[in-house]
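Open question from group meeting: does this chain pack into something compact, or does most of it stay loose? Before anyone orders reagents, we agreed to write out a predicted structure and look at it together. Recording both the input and the output here so the notebook holds the full record.
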Amino acid sequence: MPGSESLQSLLQSKFPHALSKNQLTAPSKVAEDFAAMVPESKTILIDMFAGAGGNVIAFALSERWSKIIAIEKDISVIACAQHNASIYGVADQITWINDDSFAYLAKHASTIDPSQTVIFASPPWGGPRYEEGEIYNLSKMQPYGIKQIYEAVKKMDSALYLPRGSDLRQIARLAPGEKKIEVVQYCMQGASKAMVAYIPAATPET
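Structure tokens returned:
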């Protein structure tokens, strides 16, 4: 039987997005924090940008959620995510959706219950490169800016996984009414990897 390093090399050659256990360290902490921040009555989690599955696998391993929906529009990437989830024994605990996340949320708006559902979004960080110490303009993220993402999820508690240098002023402007946003920096080996903005749901208009 090949050693762990050769096995990982084999997985990487066949599945370029295969995950190592080290890559689940930060997602596991995010999953733990998000679970603690939202009411226990909210038991459905939607991952808008599932990617290779690192975050959604961590959510499934937490055993906090009665239903997890993972959305990914790239069919080859979602196949890798399913493969990764099967390695960790949680593939069957996740509902996999090959679709555009905004289209999915719009199509199912009438059946998604904000009182039971939360959103996790780790969007692509495309757009202008930024250097260490520079402030990252979230409106220039590509292909989805921060406002487009927030407008799609604002009715639900959400966690947005963002670049570590994100502009805190832009995040603060998303705060609904008098509610507060909690921002947490996540570090690995002493260096910040990313920040997560935990945003409470907007109060429904009457």
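Observations to bring back to the group:
The radius of gyration is 17 Å.
The beta strands are 44-47, 67-71, 94-97, 117-121, 157-162, 182-188, 191-199.
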